[in-house]
Amino acid sequence: MSAGREVTIGELVKRLLKERSLSMRKLSALTGIDTATISRIVNGKQPARPEHLQQFADHLHVPIEELFHAAGFPGGRRSAEWHSGIHGSVDAIQQVLVSSNLFDQQYTTERVQQELIKYEQYALTEEGKRIILEDFQAKVEQVRGAGPFIEHLKRMYQHFSKEDTPAEERALLGSALLYFILSADIIPDYVFPIGYLDDAIAVQLVLNRLAEMGGALP
Question: In this structure, are residues 49 and 192 in contact, taking their beta carbons and an 8 Å threshold?
Answer without folding.
Answer: yes
